[in-house]
Amino acid sequence: MSAALPTSSREWHLVARPHGWPKAEDFALREAAVAAPAEGRILVRNKFFSVDPYMRGRMNDVKSYTPPFKLDHPMDGGAVGEVIASNAEGFAVGDHVLHGLGWRESADVPAKHAVKVDPDLAPLSAYLGVLGMTGLTAYAGLFDVASFKEGDAVFVSGAAGAVGSQVGQLAKLKGASRVIGSAGSDEKVKLLTEEYGFDAAFNYKNGPVRDQLKEAAPDGIDVYFDNVGGDHLEAAIGALNVHGRATICGMIAQYNATEPTPGPRNMALIIGKRLRLQGMLVGDHADLQPKFVEEVAGWLASGELKYRETTVEGIENGYDAFVGLLRGENTGKMIVSLV
What we know:
Blueprint (H helix, E strand, L loop, with lengths): L7 E7 L12 E7 L7 E10 L3 H5 L20 E8 L9 E4 L6 E5 L4 E2 L16 H13 L7 E4 L5 H12 L4 E6 L2 H9 L5 E4 L5 H8 L4 E6 L3 H10 E9 L20 H4 L3 E4 L9 H14 L6 E5 L4 H9 L6 E5 L2
Parallel strand pairs: 8-9, 8-11, 9-10, 11-12, 12-13, 14-15
Antiparallel strand pairs: 1-2, 3-4, 3-6, 3-15, 4-5, 5-7
Helix pairs in contact: 2-3, 2-8, 5-6
């Protein structure tokens, strides 16, 4: 066990289901009592927690691949922190762990749902991004779902985000013939080509995606990694070569829509081109985790793989971080720091 434990912890609750864009009044930062952990559990002082686009879907009361957030309960999500009390074998005070009870200062975590992480291998926040769920999403989505092979031309939407920026770099490291990215600002476009090594990139706000993609990939693309949906997916279907593959990872363009959004108008091309469009959830690819960590940690250590984080300080700014993420205010992984 441990000596002096905190008596209370602040945590974010969802208090109303957002309609369209989430509003501040849909959330409340509340105080909760903290007790010593029961058998098989650990108490963790969170140092960083993650805000991710998929969390918007969990705010709706609809049946989905993951249960919706409960009203007037703490929200959850990826977090990394330090064990401050342990009532579980294999975990000691001072260990650092990755777990799923974010959006709060202290977390009472079942030990079976916590994974020890090494702060000497990488900064702790990296386990929420480049070495965490977003990193594995990029790795599995490109290599497993999209069946990437050397020589493929790859297009990534939302390419300056945590997943997209890693997809593009992984494709380059594995021998892509060309990597193209789209992003929402000229500054992000510059980052893609100058820091992440993309061959071409464009600002989707500067003109039709279809036209800009055609210019950036005159010979077409073999793989599309979709984080956006909408006009990006339509443009990619048009640009994909015969036997092209698309990983449908996210559709952030429509997460806050209040009416059903129209699908691509050129779906008939899927037939003649024999395209494969496949949805993905990272949870289906846990078996790749050891190989992913080994390979990616090596590329991080050698400096071949670069990453950015956008850090928002303080639990009180959790809502602002989340909405900022939905607006594209982040470059790379959006993290809330409680340090």
